Automatic annotation (TrEMBL):
InterPro entries: Enolpyruvate_Tfrase_dom (IPR001986), Enolpyruvate_Tfrase_sf (IPR036968), EPSP_synthase (IPR006264), EPSP_synthase_CS (IPR023193), RNA3'P_cycl/enolpyr_Trfase_a/b (IPR013792). This is 3-phosphoshikimate 1-carboxyvinyltransferase. Pathway: Metabolic intermediate biosynthesis; chorismate biosynthesis; chorismate from D-erythrose 4-phosphate and phosphoenolpyruvate: step 6/7. The gene is aroA. It is found in: Cytoplasm. It comes from the Bacteria. One of its GO terms (molecular function) is 3-phosphoshikimate 1-carboxyvinyltransferase activity. Phosphoenolpyruvate binds at residues 23, 96, 124, 173, 351, 394. It is an enzyme of class 2 (transferase). Residues 10-428 form the Enolpyruvate transferase domain.
Length: 432
């Protein structure tokens, strides 16, 4: 499927949507369960390419990973020190989360591991994880001065050392890699961020019995002797996937949607704050705890939006949602100014430039981007056009919503949504 035609919505969007499992939590549920020594039953697992890459990685390291159906699996490990040397090269696919967190887990192991990935992952920067792990005593080697795949993790001659690391970026992946390595270190490991990033790793480490201390933007993990594996983990719905329907329901006139079982961890709900500031009609219902994480149902109705400004402080809480927030901004009154968004340039593609180039195909002159800043001029006339996904799942879904809410679009390379949301187009067609 090289192209997909996205039709303009003929009326309001109505219905109830079950949101797929959270990608970040799905990754961690398999990794952490594989470090325990009793079976863990995982439900609402995101059965998409990125998370399947993690499942395959843990299986290649000796864990038993058995799927009962698409969203349900059993994972049994051999204890915190029970991973085994893989027989071949481990393929992380398109998943930066898989690669970066696995480097943290494997840096302390007494065997060699080599990673590869797809063409996109080969271009993404890994030095931000490798450099602090090296400070801990890890031996990790990669292409382009230890920056790029392929990457090999070599056994260290000594036990890793606990360190205090002042991270220059607020990155859950960097933080998580260091905390996971810190479980095996000879002392406490502390990560200090400029802003607080998403905390799924800390939440799950605590659920598995690790001693974690949190204060402001600082997180400390104590060395771990054994994991206390839970019997089950239920993964809440992914707010990053819900984001497309939150925006679609806001911008298509006459819409009313109910999104079931969405994760509302406060470190992930920046999009709710921004949409509310824009004037969106959102109602949070039935708050509860699911798998140790906060979850709720969200009702969204169409509304009149206006432009807003936000920047670096909130960015860790909504970095993956910037493309779809930019879609909302196109339908808002006035300009939306987004600063501190430089991290967009090192995602699956340069998302900041991709937004500018592709949005201007559908809304000429509506998007500007300079360095870490994105400006969207709302209310510009829309037209039908052919647009390109860059094989980036979040760009593909954002452009599809934009085409559906606008004058239609032809989307080139649409199949990349399988990375995080395989049912996306089916759900979109059902709503329309």
């Amino acid at each position: 499927m090289d192209k997909k035609k996205i039709a303009k919505a003929s009326g309001g969007l109505h219905g109830t949507i079950d949101i797929p499992g959270d990608k970040s939590i799905s990754h961690r549920s398999v990794m952490f369960s594989a470090l325990g020594d009793t079976p863990v039953h995982i439900t609402n697992f995101l059965h998409a390419q990125d998370c399947l890459s993690t499942a395959a990685c843990m299986k290649s390291l000796g864990a038993e990973v058995r799927f009962l159906n698409e969203g349900e699996l059993m994972v049994t490990g051999h204890g915190l020190h029970g991973l085994q040397e893989p027989a071949g090269i481990i393929d992380a696919g398109n998943s930066g989360t898989t690669l970066r967190l696995m480097m943290g887990i494997l840096a302390p192991q007494p065997f060699l591991t080599t990673f590869t990935g797809d063409a996109s992952l080969h271009h993404r920067p890994m030095g931000r994880v490798i450099e602090p792990l090296t400070r801990m005593g890890a031996c990790i080697y990669g292409r382009q001065q230890n920056q790029k795949l392929p990457i090999t993790v070599v056994p260290s001659a000594e036990k890793l050392h606990g360190i205090t690391y002042q991270s220059p970026v607020a990155s859950a992946q960097v933080k998580s890699a260091l905390l996971l390595a810190g479980m095996y270190a000879d002392g406490n490991t502390t990560v200090i961020e400029p802003f607080r990033s998403r905390d799924h790793t800390e939440q799950m480490l605590e659920a598995f019995g690790a001693e974690v201390e949190r204060e402001g933007n600082s997180v400390t993990i104590h060395p771990v002797r054994t994991f206390r594996t839970p019997e089950s983990i239920h993964v809440p719905g992914d707010i990053s996937s819900a984001a497309y329907w939150l925006v679609a329901g806001s911008i298509v006139p006459g819409s009313s949607l109910l999104l079931n079982h969405v994760g509302v961890n406060p470190t992930r709900t920046g999009i709710l704050d921004v949409l509310k500031a824009m004037g969106a009609k959102l109602e949070i219902r039935n708050r509860r705890i699911s798998g140790g994480e906060e979850a709720a149902d969200i009702r969204v109705e169409s509304s009149f939006l206006h432009g807003v400004s936000f920047g670096a402080e909130i960015m860790p809480r909504l970095i993956d949602e910037i493309p779809i927030i930019a879609v909302a901004a196109l339908f808002a009154d006035g300009d939306t100014v987004i600063t501190g968004a430089g991290e967009l340039r090192v995602k699956e593609t340069d998302r900041l430039q991709a937004i500018v180039d592709q949005f201007n195909q559908l809304a000429p002159g509506a998007a500007e981007g300079v360095e870490d800043c994105l400006i969207i001029h709302g209310g510009r006339p829309l037209q039908q056009a052919e647009v390109f996904s860059y094989d980036d799942h979040r760009m593909a879904m954002s452009l599809a919503v934009l085409g559906m809410a606008g004058e239609g679009a032809v989307l080139r390379r649409p199949e990349c949504v399988n990375i995080s949301y395989p049912q996306f187009y089916e759900t979109l067609a059902g709503l329309c």
